[in-house]
Amino acid sequence: MKRSTGPILIIISLLMDAALDSQLICSHQPITALAGEDVILPCHLEPPISVSDETVEWTRPDLDPKYIHVHRDGRFMFENQNPSYNFRTRVFVDELMTGNVSMKIFKVKVSDTGRYQCALPSLQKEASIQLIVGESDVIGSDKPVTVTVGDNAILPCYLEPPFDVRTLTVEWKRDGRFVHISRHGKDYLDLQDENFRGRTSVFHEEMIRGNISLKLTNVTELDAGSYTCNVPKLESQVRRGFINLTVEPVENRNKGDQTDDISK
């Protein structure tokens, strides 16, 4: 007795109709990121249909080879991937069944800027999205910081545009000697110059906004000089900022107070 194939054909037909009706939609707005960040290029099918068994291709037509990430037969096809993206891309395999074909790029570079194409060849669907990657520079201070002996000083240094540096190393130096080192949100002071022992700190909670300023307590005249704040592995042309610290003796402040008294 032959089994009826009618219901199966109907299901296949419905699936094909759903695939034809579904549209591949990527963000119409450019995706912007700073060099060193991870970024997601959003792209999905609407209405959602499963593409777990389909080939998903992400390409950049201006490159050779153009393939950025290809997912086929349930796995990543690395053979034709452009070398500059090696180990830096992924799709969300568990979400392919809901039509999510977005791609994530890890630690983007300025050279990643460009227009990306997302394609489902067997469904004859394609869409594009623009990625813009900018740089964040380390900014010091054009004006010297002036304090009196015994006071606390904050040497301003920050990244512009703001960039989260919590996973990077931040180095403060004066005359080539380490003043303070922060790495992955922790202080590493083994190499710190003895003159600064127990007197330096950074604002760890503000590093998410690119603030890498240094606080120096109980300032002495020996602290005066030119300081540098440096983020060695920052993806930028400007990784170092400069700040001059001027330290005035206590007498200068007292003279100012006496002058004020006389004028009263």
Automatic annotation (TrEMBL):
Transmembrane segments: none annotated. Residues 7-118, 121-239 form the Ig-like domain. It is found in: Membrane. The keyword Endoplasmic reticulum does not apply. One of its GO terms (molecular function) is signaling receptor binding. Keywords: Disulfide bond, Glycoprotein, Immunoglobulin domain, Membrane, Signal. GO terms for cellular component: external side of plasma membrane. It holds the Pfam family V-set. GO terms for biological process: regulation of cytokine production; regulation of leukocyte cell-cell adhesion; regulation of T cell activation; T cell receptor signaling pathway. InterPro entries: Ig-like_dom, Ig-like_dom_sf, Ig-like_fold, Ig_sub, Ig_V-set, IgSF_BTN/MOG. The keyword Glycoprotein applies. Residues 1-22 form the signal peptide. Gene3D superfamilies: Immunoglobulins. PANTHER family: BUTYROPHILIN, ICOS LIGAND. This is Ig-like domain-containing protein. It comes from Dicentrarchus labrax.
